[in-house]
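Researcher: Go.
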Amino acid sequence: MSGENSKTGMAGTAERIREFPRHYGPECAAGLSCLVFACLTHAFRWFNTMYQHDALLVNQRDFGYQIALGRFLYPLYVLTRGKIVSPPFVGLFGTVFLTAAAMLCVHTLKIRSRLAAAAAGALMAVTETVTILAATCLECFDVQLLALLFASASAFFLLRKGTRSFLLGAGFLTAQLALYQAYIEVTAAVVLLFLLRLLLENERPAAAVRTGLRALGGILAGGLFYGLCLRLLWKVFQSETITASNGLTQLGSITLRSAGGRLAHTYLSFVQYFLRSEILHRQVSAALYILLAVFLIASPAAAACRGRIRKGNALCCGLLVLLLPLALNAVAFLIMGEKHGLMRYAYVFFPVAALLFADALFYGKDTRGTAGRTVREALLCICGILILCHMGYAGQVYTKKALECEAAKSFMTRIVMRMEETEGYVPGQTPVVILGDADENPVVTERGGFRFTDEWLVRDHRMAVSYYQTYELYFANILGYRINLVDIRNVAPYLTLDEVRKMPVFPLPGSVRMVGDTLIVRLSEDIRPQELRPEMNIRY
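Model: Structure:
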């Protein structure tokens, strides 16, 4: 009997696997599209080392730093998958998490059209946040995309009824914040789009309000639990808070006086971003984003005029559309600080929102008229163009970064040769201070045609080494050269020495010399390391 039951169970499992594509067609379309476009766009990155910027942390050991940033689950995940950052391995894990997140978002938002779901999956795979993350911060690529998956799971459970779903939603939100805080915008975006879906399906606004309040309560509960865990861990590990790195640890008090300015900053930065998009063909993409915005604003009103939804629903849709920039740019409101490409993943839900509207309003037997089909096809074409622009942007970024890595090998090898030629220098023993910025060195040129973006993580770098602490990582992990680099916290006294300030800039004679028992290397006119420049606002 037990053997028969086992065979029956196996047969049932096999049958469920075979039936999965039929029952979950849009989800499968989103997952397959996400997987294919992720491979097409990022495969070059997975099969080239290109270690630079933060990704020079090939062997991840900065667990105390991550806890100080508020990412206390980061070390646990790294210990599980291994400390060594291998591009194919990290790329595989990250792509799996990304694909699962795309499928979960499509399922949560109830997108029924396979083409719309496939377009949403492709957009989630090629968006510039994924490109910038892979190009500059490879060591946390899979970590951040796991946070994306947790954010998607949080929204999925918070939008379901029941105490268990509420607790699971709040728990996944806590886990997401403990990996990478900025992706809380993804949870907010999916929740808001789901509420719009309810209204477009002619649900009563009161039902949408109840759903939204329940989800908001889960977000607040998860955030509160995260804050309590973080305070406890900071106390246990006696960790110093780092307030300037991509998270909510910079969260400041929001007063009535500051709320207006924060709102203005949030909306203005959101609009400016889409009018000056990071992807290729800015003018074309800006025009397409304007068309999408017009569609989001006008389509509910048009549907109300045709009697497809209630006028009250159309009005509520309009109000929620106005809240969409706040949801997608919530971190800018919360921290009122710099927000860069690694923190903008939720922006992808702007075009996804247009796909959702078209699916809700123009999909089904009662909406298969010529006008509805035309709108759906036009939106798919717009998303297709945006996808191609994102893919082209990724190609340019990866090419630029590959060239920067090649240039750094030559530049840093020349520095090693000059160091070893300096009398009194003992490799691995003599303290070394590297002053200035390699990107500002006069012999390091800007490559023609590659200043194509406003994103500083891409635009402002010409070399694989981008700040003081990456020098030691580059010597150790790339060149395999032992260097006794002076800690950044002990560099400031050297900046005031007259003999240091009078040194010429590398590669001129005298740009590498012994000052006392320390070897000084001057790379640029401004001798301050980036970490010590006031405009960087980095605290240690």
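Model: DSSP finds 21 helices and four strands in the chain.
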